DNA sequence: TACACCTGTAATATATTTATTACAGGTGTT
DNA sequence: AACACCTGTAATAAATATATTACAGGTGTA
């Protein structure tokens, strides 16, 4: 994800996704390799419902992708994988993005 | 501010500062040049008290610096200036920063 | 003096984010 | 059947972030 251009809303979603210590830790764990939800919850030391909430923000920002598989012993497994990225954040990038920023009262919160 | 290394807390403060549409707009305005508080409030179309709150987050993240001056006609003027930056955000950067991340219940909120 | 600017902050209300609890339903193994 | 895993979500509580209101106090000019 070597994105050159962002809309204001995309950039904002990205920063929002990155603005929480638990999500930074989740990213850090996923940087080591894909992982399934329950195991990720154990490693990140948080409940699954809470983890889902954080993962949804990362997903909304386009930082992770998911993959449903079935394990050898037949269990459904949902894997999360971190998409590679290298963002260059400059005042100019922000200035351009702000032009397309829609400041709204958070209605688009449903996935 | 071509920072190469961040502590976890510094990086988090940075992302928190960037995770609000009004603050992105403030950055965008300041990218054009330094400005004093009242004028900035008019350009950003927000009240001064609210603007102060946002500016404090930018200050906490080390993105702006301030300068008190006295105008020709004797008025006290507080100028805010955007510090230049070019952040390269990668999974590795986050992974390193997370090592020094202190997850706390926000006590250090006083400037 | 009244007015038009400027800085600064405390107290409070509102909105959003974060976190928890309690569920439902699936598989394979003992 | 009971157990140990897995996914998924709704309802709610608690903590923070955002926004407003109401102040106090400074300067120079009409």
Describe this structure in words.
The structure is a homodimer of 111-residue chains. With 111 residues, the first copy, chain A, is an alpha+beta fold. The first copy, chain A, has a single domain (8-98), classed as Arc Repressor Mutant, subunit A, CATH 1.10.10. Helix content of chain A is 45%, strand content 17%. A 3-stranded antiparallel beta sheet of chain A has the order 1-3-2. In chain A, helix 1 runs antiparallel to helix 4 and helix 1 (8-18) packs across helix 5 (91-98). The radius of gyration of chain A is 16 Å and the shape is elongated. The model of chain A is unreliable at 107-111 (pLDDT under 50). Chains A and B meet through helix 1, helix 2, strand 4 and helix 5 of A and helix 1, helix 2, strand 4 and helix 5 of B. Strand 4 of chain A pairs antiparallel with strand 4 (87-89) of chain B, so a sheet runs across the interface. The structure holds a DNA duplex (30 and 30 nucleotides).
């Amino acid at each position: 994800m070597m994105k050159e251009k962002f809309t204001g809303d995309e950039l904002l979603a990205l920063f929002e996704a990155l603005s929480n210590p638990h999500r930074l830790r989740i990213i850090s764990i996923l940087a080591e390799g894909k992982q399934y939800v329950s195991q990720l919850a154990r490693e990140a030391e948080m409940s699954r419902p809470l983890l889902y909430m954080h993962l949804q923000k990362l997903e909304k920002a386009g930082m992770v992708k998911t993959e449903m598989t079935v394990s050898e012993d037949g269990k459904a497994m949902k894997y999360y994988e971190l998409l590679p990225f290298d963002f260059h954040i400059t005042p100019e990038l922000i200035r351009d993005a702000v032009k397309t920023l829609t400041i709204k009262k958070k209605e688009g919160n449903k996935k």
